Amino acid sequence: MRLSLQLMFVFSLSLVIALAGLVQADVKAQFETLFGAEVKRVSATPDPADDVELAGQLLNAAKGTSDQPEMRDHLCDYAYALGSRDISGYPVAVEAMQLIAENTPAKAAESEAKIVLLYQRGYERATGEKKAEAGQQYLDYLLTQADEKIIIKDYSEAMNLLRKARPVAIAIKSDQRESIQGKIDTYTQLAIAAGRVDTAQKKIKANPWDKATHSQLVELYVTDMDDPAKAALHLELGGDEVQKKMIPLAVKPVTDMDEAGALALADYYEGLSKKGINITKAAMLTRSKAYYEQYLSLHTDEDVQRTAASLNHKRVSDTLAKLEIEMGGVKRAEAADAKTLELLVYVDPARDGQRGRWTRVGDAIKADRGGFTELPRLRPPVRIEGLHYNLKVRFTRDSGDGSVGIVFPVGDSQVSYVMNLFPQGAAGLSDVGGRGAAENATRKDVSLTNGKVTNLDITVKAEEDGTAAIAISFEGRSVVEWKGRQADLSVNNLVSPGERKVVALIAFGSGVTFTNVKLKMLSGKADAFEKIVDRATKIESLKAAEKDKGNNRDDERREREKMIEDFIKGRRGKAN
Fold first, then answer.
1. What is the pLDDT of residues 503-561, one digit of tens each?
2. Cα angle at 11 between 7 and 14, to 5 degrees?
3. Is the whole model's pTM more than 0.85, yes or no?
4. Is 298 exposed, middle or buried (0-12, 13-18, 19+ CB in 10 A)?
5. Are 366 and 344 in contact (CB under 8 A)?
6. Closest by Cα among 170, 99, 110 to 139
7. How many CB atoms lie within 10 A of CB 306?
8. pLDDT tens for residues 400-451?
9. Rounded to 5 degrees, what angle do the CA atoms 276, 282, 288 make?
């Protein structure tokens, strides 16, 4: 049964008007008023098709209520309930839970558990040819979740997911059976290392002056845990002279290294790769490779030093490639080969904000409105090693009337797309042939509205012959279709992130919240050179943001009270 005209009217009119003025305090009553009758109608029919269709409509409604988080989550819960009534609705149900997990960190674990349950139910209920298909979907999700847990070092939950995955892989005769067992073996060893860290931390808590335990933690953090920042915390009482020299350098971004530092760290990490389990060796080689690449990008003279570094870089790269094959797909860092990668999950504003004030609020990254003397710029720590890719950027300009932009690589060049430039509304690629966005042929004016979510879609196709094509849509409308020589594209020093293969977010005279920066490689791969920000950090950032809002409200209240007080005093003065 198709959805009634009444429902379509509800979605086209009620969502635009009623949800815009929604009162958060009574979400359930509002939902019942808007959608209750239709939910009851589809629930009463034996055909699940109308349930699935309504689930899709509720999910679309949820996507449009970003400023009403309680209603968004409530809509998603119903989309999940209705979509899960038939296997054809599973994609809708999964997307609904993912929307909650992405926007409400406190509910992420519950949402992920519901997705696992849904895939499990689909697999258990499927028969015949559909059994293998449902099993592969279930398996893919379990493995993806396990990889994410490994990245944030939640080894216990990762093991649970992998152990669920293995019997499914065996039952459907998946080619991934051996690699899953390899992951279980490898990550079990990492879990043991993590247990050693916990034990050592307890010893430090009992005796803060225990030098031997501090040294043990330095070694564990710099190798097995691959976390030089935490290793650095124990250098005052632990570590040898080499570690005291190298680890503080390793804490800094790779792109901040000068020639001497990059070469020293490349050699240091290659040395660390000679011992430990395979995944630790791979992590050390990955860092060594990145430092060699930084050195080669700085040392451009064709001399003995560059030749030696090039040979060392090749040796490290070849060793890493062989090791990754041997590991059978077990990786510590996430690569985006043919997958969508959310860049913001890797962002530490204190580390990656190159100019201006940037903060994390849950999964989002905010740029404070800067003055005329600064141009806030942030570089997510992900390197794009491919010629063809797609970027989807979602942001909201919160304040100001200035511009917002994104810098991105195009083959051997780099360019930015900037919106709302002066003259008001000018937008385009900058620079093309040495001309800015307001002056070159890519200019096509767009307008940004404060408080309105904006979606930007960028597709880059660079070719080996030095040509490239760039297609950009703004809110679903094509605004750029450029083809030409990569050499004609450039960025000025104000917006350049200092490294060609990365993306950068920029703002000028605007307060901006970036909700998503999603990268999908169409060829090649992308590598994150920092770790995913853990959930605890995201939750703390949300608490801090709420506290700031409270402080701001208090400041506004005190300011109003003072204005009233001054006004009354002024009136009394005149009366006297």
1. 999 998 888 999 999 998 887 788 887 777 665 555 565 556 555 554 554 555 555 55
2. 105
3. no
4. middle
5. no
6. 170
7. 14
8. 888 899 999 999 899 999 998 765 678 899 889 988 888 899 998 888 888 8
9. 105
